[in-house]
Structure formats: C-alpha cells, structure tokens
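Re: weekly structure request thread

Next one in the queue (253 aa):
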Amino acid sequence: MNTVDLNADLGEGFGSWKMADDNALLDIVTSANVACGFHAGDPSIMRAVCRRAADRGVAIGAHVGYADKAGFGRRFVDVEPAALRDEVLYQIAALDAFARIAGSKVRYVKPHGALYNTIGHHEGQAAAVIEAVSDYDRSLPVLGLPGAAWLRLAAEAGLTVVHEAFADRAYTPEGTLVSRRLPGSVLHDGAEIARRCVAMATGHAITDSEGGELKLQPTSICVHGDTPGAVEIARLVRQELTDAGVTLTPFAP
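Done, posted below.
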C-alpha cells in the first residue's frame, strides 16, 4: 500500500498580520511545520496552531529559521555556528512547550527558507542545526530534500532522515528546486500539481524543468499555504491522492 505524509508551513503570521488559512490547511494536511517566532510567528500564534493541530491529530514539527522577520527568513544570515545552534535549540524548545500544553509534542524538525537552502551545502551551519536537534532530542526526525548535505551529516550523526518533495515547485534534472528567481519555478495549476503529487507518491516520474523524467518518491510532500488558491490546491491534492489509493498519514505520528 502506498502511503505519504502531507505537510504545510503554518503559523506564519505575526500579531494581527496573517498569512495562510491555518485552520483550513489543518483539515487537509497530516503534518504541520509551525513557525517558531524567528522568521515568522509569535507565542500566541504558536500556542493556537499547536492546539488546533493536536485537536485534529496533525503531527507538529518545528519550522526553524534565521532570525529574519523582515525578510521572512528567505535571506541568508552569516551567523556563527554556535549562535545558530543555540537559536535553533531555542526555537524547538519554545514550540515544544506549546505543543505539550496542547497534549502533543514536537515530533520532527524542518528548517525554513534560506536556512533550508543554505544547509543543503554549507556544512558548518548544517552541523549547527544537527547539534541543536541532537542536544534537544535525538529521536526527532529531520525533514529535507534528498541530496542535501545536512541530511547526509544528520544520518551520520544517527538522526532519522526523512525525504520530502514540494507539490508546487519545479525541479531541475538533478532533483534540486528551480530557483524562485526564475520563471516557472512555482506551479499554479491545481490539476497539474495534483497529478505530480500522485506520480511522486506512487513511484512514477514527473517532468523536470528541461522536459525529462525525474523520479522522487518522497516520504512527505509539502503543500504551500501562502500561494494564490493554496487551500483549494491542497484539497485537490489530498482528494487525488486518496482517489489513487494513497493512504495519508504522518511520517512521525
């Protein structure tokens, strides 16, 4: 039986400013990457999203990032590894407090934005993130793209590594994401996105940015909540996966 997890980035508001429709997405996804207050989010939002996720049986993950609210965590920050380690540890622990109050706990870690991209190749910062996770709870899985340096180092450190793919992002023939700075990097056709997700979940190839075939086979698929029509696209992805006989379940229950 084919199984896959659906994850989304949630809690990415600040004060009265909101981004995604967290409540609607929590009825669709099986795992929630919750912003921990550095790239977005604040204590009240963290608490509310954790409570709603726990009520719905959605796994809670720490979506850790650079301290960069103005840039939404999408700008590289040349922070010293020791400081980055402590910042990531701080974020995991803060979210875990709210998750435990809600009757759940943080079940995995997924870096956000520029941090996610940077530790794909920057081994110093990658090691810092791995050390933070190891210091807090070595049983926590880490979620990222296949081939990323930090996942290789995490596996060498004894952490559980989980591979993900992105529902609405274009891929290069090498299996990396097409830069957001390039046209066509983000997909917007819901039917096309859903078809690609079914292909990925059932072991079939998708079309890469140069027209070739690329097989990904992720354990988890990320559906973004901050793009136009995001909720409708996520619902369609879930429905098409279910219709194809794919079981949707958290990878870290």
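The longest helix spans residues 81-101. The chain is about 35% helix and 15% strand.
Next request, please.
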